């Protein structure tokens, strides 16, 4: 089944035609598994803008592969044009800019007669392979947290997560879900509370789908139920992902994450953020002031996607002309974060904690 196994991928070069990059159309999940073909860099841009692909690491990988497609059809000038347009698409997720800058650096070092498309393809493949290794590193370090809780209690380890920080948000394994999948491999009894994550329902439509595909015990809850569950001792641990983290440990994640952190803090429940180092923005310190918060189409709030009689339909749930705001992310201050789970280990949500794991960014 799609979504299962170590060989699962969210983006890949077509084995039949290296002019085509393939992705999973996440807009169709969980009702239909459909793959899309990206034949031009504009297809990749549309996939990012329209959220056919989601999650900071996957967005970055999609940008890299889009630059490969640009190089195939238009050479260096078209690749630079594509890079400029891609950088405008999703301002909060730092992986997109990171991937574009990485490809640009690779382009700068090439001799004039080099095969540009081949070089960018190699870079895109490396980005994807490294992301899998990073997710597994996060998984192994986060697994220790789950093991510790499992040793101290009977019954399942109850983990609450928000939005989708799973395999669908990365290349495979995910960030917040990687420790869960590795715990499952060890036969640790794990249960996941899945926030629906309005307005795009990335928890109910993506996280719940992939947990089900992998056979992980889970229960879907409305976004506002998390605090109630914490008050009644039904949550042992909160793990979320992040789209951008400051060098001081502030984290931007899907809107509603801050409220989960507040509830966890009030109930003395550990709140961890699982993040690849590629989502750390070493150039900023104050998340509330410096992280741009994307505001998206108001129809994401007023309309909801669902299945009706075998058809996927879009339904309006609000009165016409209702004023709507749609902030896509919020910032959780470092003081509310118990720790950051990275591929190099778990650290305090602070500049000192991050630099202890990533000393190369000290200057």
Secondary-structure blueprint:
Elements: E1 11-13, E2 21-24, E3 35-38, H1 41-49, H2 56-87, H3 94-108, H4 116-152, E4 157-161, H5 178-185, E5 190-195, H6 202-213, E6 217-221, H7 226-231, E7 237-240, E8 244-246, E9 251-254, H8 257-266, E10 271-274, E11 280-281, H9 287-290, H10 299-302, E12 303-308, E13 311-316, E14 329-332, E15 339-342, E16 345-347, H11 351-357
Parallel strand pairs: 4-5, 4-7, 5-6, 7-10, 8-11, 10-15
Antiparallel strand pairs: 1-2, 2-3, 8-9, 9-14, 12-13, 15-16
Helix pairs in contact: 1-2, 2-3, 2-4, 3-4, 4-5
How would you describe the overall organization of this protein?
The chain is of the alpha/beta class. It folds into two domains: 11-129, translation initiation factor eif-2b, domain 1 (Four Helix Bundle (Hemerythrin (Met), subunit A), Up-down Bundle); 141-361, Translation initiation factor eif-2b, domain 2 (Rossmann fold). The protein has eleven helices and 16 strands. The chain has helices at residues 41-49, 56-87, 94-108, 116-152, 178-185, 202-213, 226-231, 257-266, 287-290, 299-302, 351-357; strands at 11-13, 21-24, 35-38, 157-161, 190-195, 217-221, 237-240, 244-246, 251-254, 271-274, 280-281, 303-308, 311-316, 329-332, 339-342, 345-347. The strands form four sheets. It has a seven-stranded mixed β-sheet, with helices on both faces. A four-stranded mixed β-sheet has the order 11-8-9-14, covered by helices on one side. Helix 2 runs antiparallel to helix 4 (116-152). It starts with 10 loop residues before the first strand and ends in a 6-residue tail after the last helix.
């Amino acid at each position: 089944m799609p979504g299962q196994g170590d060989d699962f991928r969210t983006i890949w070069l077509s084995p039949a035609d290296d002019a085509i990059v393939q992705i999973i159309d996440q807009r169709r999940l969980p009702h239909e598994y459909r793959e899309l073909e990206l034949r031009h860099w504009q297809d990749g841009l549309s996939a990012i803008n329209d959220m056919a692909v989601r999650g900071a690491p996957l967005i970055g990988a999609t940008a890299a592969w889009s630059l490969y497609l640009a190089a195939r059809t238009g050479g260096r000038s078209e690749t630079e044009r594509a890079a400029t347009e891609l950088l405008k698409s999703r301002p909060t997720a730092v992986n997109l800019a990171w991937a574009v800058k990485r490809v640009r650096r690779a382009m700068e070092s090439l001799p004039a007669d080099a095969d540009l498309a081949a070089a960018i393809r190699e870079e895109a493949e490396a980005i994807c392979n490294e992301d899998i290794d990073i997710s597994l590193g996060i998984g192994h370090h986060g697994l220790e947290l789950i093991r510790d809780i499992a040793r101290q209690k009977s019954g399942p380890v109850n983990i609450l997560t928000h939005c989708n920080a799973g395999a669908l948000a990365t290349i495979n394994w995910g960030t917040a879900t990687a420790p869960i999948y590795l715990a499952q491999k060890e036969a640790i009894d794990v249960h996941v509370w899945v926030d629906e994550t309005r307005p795009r329902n990335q928890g109910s439509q993506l996280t719940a789908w992939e947990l089900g595909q992998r056979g992980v015990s889970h229960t879907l809850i409305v976004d506002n139920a998390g605090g109630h569950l914490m008050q009644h001792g039904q949550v042992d641990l909160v793990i979320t992902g992040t789209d951008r983290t400051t060098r001081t440990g502030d984290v931007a994640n899907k809107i509603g994450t801050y409220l989960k952190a507040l509830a966890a803090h009030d109930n003395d429940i550990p709140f961890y953020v699982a993040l690849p180092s590629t989502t750390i923005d070493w150039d900023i310190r104050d998340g509330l002031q410096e992280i741009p918060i994307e505001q998206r189409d108001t129809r994401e709030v007023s309309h909801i996607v669902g299945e009706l009689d075998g058809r996927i339909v879009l339904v309006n749930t609000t009165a016409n002309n209702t004023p709507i705001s749609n902030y896509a992310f919020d910032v959780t201050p470092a003081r509310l974060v118990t720790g950051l789970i990275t591929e190099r280990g778990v650290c305090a949500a602070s500049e000192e904690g991050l630099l202890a794991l990533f000393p190369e960014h000290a200057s």
